[in-house]
Amino acid sequence: MTTYNTGNPLGSAAAKDLYDNAENFDHLSNDQSNEKWPDRFGRERLTWHGIEKMSQEAISSFGYITLKSFQLGAPLPNNELTLPNQALQDETDGEYYRWDGVFPKAVPAGSTPESTGGIGVGKWLSVGDAAFREEANKKYKYSVKLSDYLTLQESASAAVDGLLIDEDYHFTDGESVDFSGKVLTIDCKAKFIGDGKLTFENLGSGSRIVHPHMQSQTVPYVISRWDSNGEWINDPSTIISTLTQSRTKGYAPTTNDVDIYSSLPDNVKNQNLISHLIISNSSGIDIFYPKATFGSYESFKNNNVKFWYPRDFYGDMTNCIAFTAWDSTDYYHGNYVIGGSTNYGSGSGVCFYRNDGGVSRDGGVIGGFTPYRCGESGVKTYQNEVNGISQRCYSLRFIDIYPIETYYDGVDLNADYGTPTERQHDYTLAQYGWNNLPTNHIVSNIQAYKTHGVGIWGDGSTGFYRDIYASYSRGAGIFIKGSGKNFKNLTSVQNNAANTPGENQITLDGANIIDGVNIINYTQPPGLAIFAPNSTVTNLSAPGVSSSSINIGNIEGLVVGNQISVQPNLATQTSAVYLNVVNTGVASKREDTIKVGPGASEVTRYVISGSTPRLTMRENHGDFGAVNIAFSGTVLPDEAVPDANSYAVYWDGTNLTALINHGGVLTRQKLTT
What we know:
mainly beta, Seminal Fluid Protein  PDC-109 (Domain B), Pectate Lyase C-like, 3 domains, 5-stranded antiparallel beta sheet, about 10% helix, about 35% strand
């Protein structure tokens, strides 16, 4: 209690109140005995000591996330701890420590507690090996832990509402665990280790698998397609020279690696190595923070399965995360990957087979997912058939995805691929042509960086693409086939880095509506800046791009030339607009030319009939302020001037003659003789 306790209102400057305030502040800051102290109004307030104690109790109640190690460095981005309940092991004595100071806390490889801040309050605090064992021995009410049983199936059969994986479990290829429809929380403090497939069957809806970790028993042979500067290695012999055994330093080559596969040693070709968890007949479950050290996950014939925030995830020789339905003609929905990241893997980061989200587009990849250096695509919807059944997907969401340096494509949302063949258990070709299925995906905020293939690839006759950004891909930046889609804000930054003929920065070959296109740092490689000959485009920005590199259909709103900036190092800047270009042999063309330096600008108009543009008008040629109008070189028939109160001029031998339509009455008047 304060000394004077006058009861004066808040804000009082009386000397006694100021004394009481100073006394209160002293207790708040420095009292190490009392967790609470009454203020000058008699209300109990936590002291700083009390706040610290409450925080420690809260941290303890979270449970520790145990990590290895000071000696290896914190196994997180930038070797930094970010949470107060992350406990890092000191391998010299096996003790675990948590950081009691400011976050993030960097712990580089080769560290000890003493070398990274010391031990004590505000530094490293031991959670104790005994404390860790106590944490590992925690059970849910009526639950069991794996170490009490000989097999995973025995522990699953005994579990009521929870199962603690408290020690590494070594599975055999093809092993299956039946959970008999129980709604369980499976809390994984250790790994599932093995080569091959482990299947979880019949988990009840509402079940949770927390921190699962798949790891191969065998260390695979992997390649790296990137040099020390992060640039693509394109020489096959150099790629093969990177072969090494590691679970985390590259991906295992497969037949997809056509440039090197025939030259690989037989033991590498034949390794066929996975550590693969299949979740089957288990709709309505959540998998939180899945990990893999050369491993992978598959949801087989399930609805409403969500993988939340994959992390520390290094893929094996298949897709990192897949939603499959190999032998079923049913469609599946409500399946998601939410946030997180995957690294390497011979397949895609996420792949969907035969999923249809319906009207609500229930399913997909959302929440900021980053696939890194996949051996195939970052995110993919499978094309064509498997086992004679179409695996194409419809009405999914792909939002906030950031593919980085994937070997194939950043995001591949094609449904049809290759030579057209009749679809099986799907729409027929008579219903929807090849590459024109009603895929109807929502695709938003995709940022593909430095892919070896296409940044963003897809097809379909419906759907909405918004805020699509591709930069520095070796292939095309954005390549979408099919008609009837809406696009908003497409950006291409210096794609087709391989300078491949015919690869455009942006290709949209169907008839679509496009609002907002940005072409940045285009250096005129063999492909065009944009190829959209059948689409309507508004708001095209293409600084420094010549008219010969732009092929678009209808322009609405601002004219392209008004959007193209004149670059200081260019003597002349020209933009061309082709209107209604379906058959480029019949079109209308307008060119705006801006000259830097002496002179000004001119506008020319042409009609195209056949292969040669025919000039109809030229404005301000040579900066003379004149308008040049083309005359016909042959005598015009009456139907050449169909509009009342208009005229056309032609040469009749050596006579310049006007054909005049005056109120519908045609007359011919010689202008020269």
